# Entry
Amino acid sequence: MSRGNQGMMLKVYNKKSESLDIRIRLAHPDDAPHLIALLIKQHGKNYPNRRFYDDAWVRQGLDGGILCFAVVDRGDGTLAGMIGADEGNAFSGSSVFILLTINHSLRGFGIGKHLHRFLLEAVWNGAYTCIYGHCLTIDTISQINHHEFGYQMTGLILNRYIYDTNAENLVNLQLPFKRTHLVACLPLKKQDAGILYTPSAHAAYIGEVYESLGVAYSTHEGTNPMERKSLLTITQYEEHRYSELLIKETGHDLASILEDVLKQYRALESQTFNVFINLNDPGCPEGCRVLEEQGFFFTGLQPLSGQYEYMIMHYSPRIPVPFDKIAVIPEFNKRFSYIQQKYQEAQDDRKN
# Structure
């Protein structure tokens, strides 16, 4: 292995002891069309974040530092693998690892781990509060990779994006209808989560997660936010029949806002909802109560996410949560089982 201004040269081996010489480097703006070509080869036109198909946007992101990609350079002007870090997300200040893609001819050589390590080193001393992965749960490959680098599972984002509009493909591949992501977090710059206003029902889970992350925190009882309005954003992904709500402050009007959102979208076929609610807000426990009254249930945490700490809650009015198709490694099973229990309790409450 050797490093230099042009990246890192590696000799990698597969299980048959066959070797391959590769070069890993950071991407530059002129790599944009090659990154997009890799994306299309792997995902077709189905990748949920459509901006990554826009050459100008990718170039601007790479040039401005919002995007950072490590790539496998074949030396002929094309790329054979990539992994990215995207700061341009709802949790400004943190970064999510995205788009680990390796050409089929290069698989089995452990290149994904080398890309991951190279990119981690590139962002380690930057300004990110944390780096996290939204690991797919159709298999455990990504989870194993993240766990080996020290990431902790903190929650699930259930029933998020539609895999494929072709229902036959879903059946043939035995895939759930929508993507579920496992949140895996690795602390970076942020080492103090501040005061957490934790709903008492989930205090043990929340405390265990922050202890495992090794960051400072304290807990306090919440207050009833009768004096203010809610501060939140609502994003509806029409092609995925999916709503995402980011609640920074819970106010007295949260119940009516939720009723309006649910009235507008709940009847859509396959519609699902995920809420990220600010744990640093004294109104969080009251917001959690309001959400649970509307059918939402606790699915974990999105911690160290920029300025705030977030709790995740999910509601799926028209399709089930396919826990039987969610693959989780043994190290994460305790937290997975807790979330599954919360789902069952929510289902029982709906029946009653």
